[in-house]
Amino acid sequence: MGNKVIQSSLTKKYVMALAGLFLVTFLFVHMSINLLVLLPSTDTFNIAAHFMGTNPLIKIFEVVLFGGFIIHIIYGLVLQIQNWMARPNRYKVEGWSHTSPFSKFMIHTAIIVFVFLVIHLGDFYIKAKFLGQVDDVMIDGHHYHDLGAMVLAKFQMPLYVFGYILAIIILAFHLHHGFQSGFQSLGINHPKYTPFIKTVSTLVSIVLAVGFISIPLTIYFGNY
Amino acid sequence: MNLTLKIWRQAGPNEQGKFVNYPVSDISPDSSFLEMLDILNEQLVEKGEEPVAFDHDCREGICGTCSLYINGRPHGPDTAITTCQLHMRKFKDGDTITIEPWRAKPFPVIRDLIVDRSSFDEIMQAGGFISVDTGGVPDANAIPISKVDADLAMDAAACIGCGACVAACKNASAMLFVSAKVSQFALLPQGKIEAKRRVQKMVAKMDELGFGNCTNTYACEAECPKEIQVTNIARMNREFLVAKLTDRVK
Question: Do B52 and B8 belong together in one domain?
Answer without folding.
Answer: yes
